[in-house]
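Hello everyone,

My group is preparing for a crystallization screen and wants a predicted model to guide construct design. The compound we'll soak is S-adenosylmethionine. Before spending weeks at the bench, it would help to have a computed complex in hand. I've included the protein sequence and the ligand's SMILES below. Output in structure-token form would be ideal because that's what our pipeline reads.
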Amino acid sequence: MSDQTPLLEGVSVSRETLGQLRDFSALVLKWTQKINLISSASEEEIWQRHILDSAQVYAAIPAGFSWNTWADFGSGGGFPGIVIAILASETDKNIILVESDQRKSTFLRTAIRTLGLTNVRVESRRIEDLAPLNADVISARALAALDMLCAFAAPHLADGGICLFPKGRRAPEEIVAARASWTFDLHEIPSQSGDGTILRLEGLTHG
Ligand SMILES: C[S@@+](CC[C@H](N)C(=O)[O-])C[C@H]1O[C@@H](n2cnc3c(N)ncnc32)[C@H](O)[C@@H]1O
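Reply:
Good plan to model first. Here are the tokens for the complex, ready for your pipeline.
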């Protein structure tokens, strides 16, 4: 394996992986001119606000936690799902991207093909219509409020599975609202790329 370059705290990547992240970033910038994949379109911004922001979701996996299947809900332009697939591309793990918008799903499949990723597939349908995924990790960025994310995730979590949800300033209110219907152990991991938090939920159950 080639030398590792630090991407952010807890994540170092090979030169090949760094190249794939750059290629993906260029692909998003190209496609976002036609379909609205991200709000900010400058090259510098995409790296900080989207690539690194997604990479830190990967870094939020607890040390020693063993996983095989990661599902990313509402993947949109591939954040964090494609970034996770790139970071895990040198492992034997499986990533599932769930995205209901057909044009975005087409983009995701194009990115997977262009980057030569073999560890990731797209479910082009609504989360509500999925058969149980039995995922060890479920992520979702900018998809819904926390109580709704819990409802989306619960049927698809494997025993001992965890959720990773990046959140902004409204996190405290969303946590209170979610606790009215859901029980979970919560770890709040400060963002390295902005002023948000990654919420890590363990032991999610209804009630
Ligand atoms: C605001 S975008 C966020 C995209 C990406 N996660 C990001 O952070 O850049 C939300 C995405 O979720 C998708 N989406 C919304 N509701 C969904 C559902 N019920 N099932 C599957 N995808 C959904 C939308 O099509 C959209 O692409």
